[in-house]
Write a structure and sequence with these properties.
- The chain is an alpha/beta fold.
- The chain has 13 helices and 15 strands.
- The strands form 4 sheets. An 8-stranded mixed beta sheet has the order 5-4-3-6-7-8-12-15, sandwiched between helices. Strands 9-11-13 form a 3-stranded mixed beta sheet.
- A hairpin with a 5-residue loop joins strand 1 and strand 2.
- Helix 1 packs across helix 6, helix 4 runs parallel beside helix 5 and helix 9 runs antiparallel to helix 10.
- It is globular and about 55 Å long.
- It binds NADP nicotinamide-adenine-dinucleotide phosphate (NAP).
- The site of NADP nicotinamide-adenine-dinucleotide phosphate has 23 residues, from helix 1 and strand 9.
């Protein structure tokens, strides 16, 4: 172990292995990436970034290499990126992703990083919805940086059924009317991301991976949940105005800019401009060698969370 600049200890590096830095370690996908790398670290050394010192301490207490990195504070980047070869860039539900990603990519170039894998969105190139457009601007910026890149394009997270639109009083609500959308399990995103980072840019550089496993409307999801949970789950079909009202009432914990983009998203899915959201494009097995997780399998694995109520 060695001492780092904030006075914490970090694991010694094995200089023969590429160093991977995972950003977003404590979130929905990031937590599962930790599990993926615990199960199979491959031939890389994994370093986890967290923005709070207590999160860093917790990761280190469990024997993991961890550093503090606050995407809103570029002064934390140089130390976190020192000696790093590959980065997983995951940002939260915020317009700040633009500045965060621009500054992080610049720092990665300076630090000699060779490969960035970015968690983006599932959209056509000419999408007009703003939070999708922000992710695309980030992708273009990464491509122009000279770094080798891999773009992940997940569709709607199944985990939303325990967070944004959870089972509540025996029903779920969807805000895209009766339209079908494509779903992906966060575990599959994490598995694809971990595989890309283990295998690196020779295999995955310049690739786009599309992660939309199965399409289902709200009522179709409710039917699956009812069968898995053994109790009737109804679906409240709602629209953009309902989503906007829920945000205005403060019942959705989403920042204003991101929330407005979410309202536009529901409108564009309903009126067909983003009808492609309801399509299957499944690269999970191509990358990981195992089939993707279906909604039914996900619900079966997550019965406790589905019946526990909202998590965020
Ligand atoms: N939900 C969907 O259906 C969906 C679909 C497609 C794409 N996406 C994209 O997926 C991304 C979100 O993934 P997720 O659900 O796994 O995220 P999440 O659960 O909200 O976790 C976000 C992670 O980023 C960290 N983070 C946030 N702000 C940070 C900062 N300033 N500095 C350092 N770390 C910071 C959080 O750390 P803390 O623990 O400190 O907060 C957390 O570890 C977004 O870019 C979203 O656009 C989502």
């Amino acid at each position: 172990m060695k001492e780092d600049t904030v006075g914490n200890t970090a694991a010694e590096h094995d200089s023969t292995k590429p160093v991977v830095l995972v950003i977003g370690t404590t979130g929905q996908v990031g937590k599962l990436m930790v599990e993926e790398f615990d199960r199979d670290p491959g031939n890389v050394q994994v370093r986890y970034a967290a923005r709070k010192s207590e999160q860093v301490d917790e990761l280190r207490a469990a024997g993991r290499d961890a550093v503090r990195l606050d995407l809103d504070d570029p002064s934390t980047f140089a130390h976190a990126l020192h000696g790093v070869d590959r980065v997983y860039l995951l940002t939260g539900y915020t317009v700040a992703m633009l500045t965060q990603s621009k500054t992080l990519v610049d720092a990665a170039v300076k630090a000699g990083v060779s490969h960035i894998a970015h968690q983006g969105i599932f959209a056509n190139w000419d999408v007009t919805d703003s939070h999708f457009a922000w992710h695309q601007l980030i992708e273009r910026y990464i491509e122009e940086s000279g770094l080798q890149w891999t773009h992940l394009h997940p569709n709607v997270f199944m985990e939303g059924l325990t967070s944004m639109t959870p089972v509540k009083n025996g029903s779920i609500s969807v805000y895209w009317g009766d339209r079908r959308v494509g779903w992906i399990a966060a575990r599959d995103i994490a598995a694809v991301a971990a595989t890309v980072l283990r295998q690196g840019p020779t295999r995955h550089g310049g690739k786009n991976y599309w992660l939309s496993t199965e399409v289902a409307s709200g009522p179709e999801v409710a039917t699956i949940l009812s069968e898995v949970l053994g109790t009737e789950i109804r679906c409240e079909i709602r629209g953009p105005q309902d989503y906007a009202a829920a945000i205005a009432q403060g019942s959705k914990n989403v920042e204003k800019w991101y929330a407005e983009a979410g309202v536009d998203f529901t409108q564009q899915v309903i009126d067909g401009r983003m009808g492609y959201i309801g399509t299957v494009r499944d690269d999970v097995e191509f990358v990981t060698g195992r089939p993707s997780i279906s909604l039914r399998e996900w619900a079966t694995e997550n019965q406790d969370r589905l019946t526990a109520g909202p998590t965020a």
